[in-house]
Amino acid sequence: MLSPIIDFWLQFMQGFNLVMEYVQHSAILKILVSCIMSLAFLNIVRAGGLMIRKVAMAIAPKKQQRKLAPQPTPINIVRSMARKMELGSLLDWKHYDDMPLAMLLENNGSTVILRICCEPYLVPQLSGGDLPGEYHFVEACFKWGPLRAEHSIDSMKFSLEMQVLHRCNQDHVPFEYVTVSYLFVIMGNGNGPLTTITENLRCIARPDSQMELPAFDLASLMKPFDSNFYSYEGTYDNGAQVLPTKWLICTYIFAISSQQVSQFSTLCGRDGTSIHCNARKEQPLGNRSVNFHIY
């Protein structure tokens, strides 16, 4: 079976050698053959690059899964076990008090997501506090349930958690995402800044529905803090994607009314039933550590 292949290869090499002899005596043929060989080389490089990208795309999800596996969220933060870490600088919040051009509220079938539209140079960002770069606001999502927000402190449960995702666009940072957590407990007349969101939840009751909110500055809802916060490595989950993230847990606990919490529970998921609880189950800390940052 190999004989026809060998014969073909020998004939091809004879023909190639003959062409190369003619090339030696013709400048035009030299240029033509050089161009053909260059194009062939470029096609080989392009094909090789495509193969590498396909392999990388196939490997990337597996690498991310391996990275996510040892750092599940949420956890119970035990204050007495947290390591005290002194900050080199305070957290710096920029453009959180600027008014965005527009605000969008969405029910993605798993949670409520808040996004904004603003000028590129006015995107809210978080830096300092020993963060390795500038982390820009991406979105905020909410987790709720009857005393079932995701994170707990000394086994104290909360009714709502607002999780604010940030992303760093710089290369070679140890973590690409930072998520700030705000915890709410049922108390008194509720939360004024949160009213703009809770009063409009009825407009996005169905999954995959969204609406434009009256714009307000994020700082009125997401209170900036510069120190005295917990941190650990975990995962952010908005129902559509799971991302590895550095968590910053605000230690100030905010008030929310039972009526406001119940308004979140009227939203419908993709199965047509109300989302009474969308918080993930508590996970063990494992070999990770929780830090408490002071200045």
UniProtKB/TrEMBL annotation:
InterPro entries, A to Z: CA_dom, CA_dom_sf, Carbonic_anhydrase_a-class
Ranges for domain Alpha-carbonic anhydrase come to 55-294
List the GO cellular component terms.
cytoplasm
Gene Ontology molecular function terms on file:
carbonate dehydratase activity; zinc ion binding
- Which family is this protein grouped under? Belongs to the alpha-carbonic anhydrase family.
Q: What is the designated name of this protein?
A: Carbonic anhydrase 1
Starting at the broadest rank, the lineage of the source organism is: Eukaryota, Metazoa, Ecdysozoa, Arthropoda, Hexapoda
- What gene is this protein a product of? CAH14
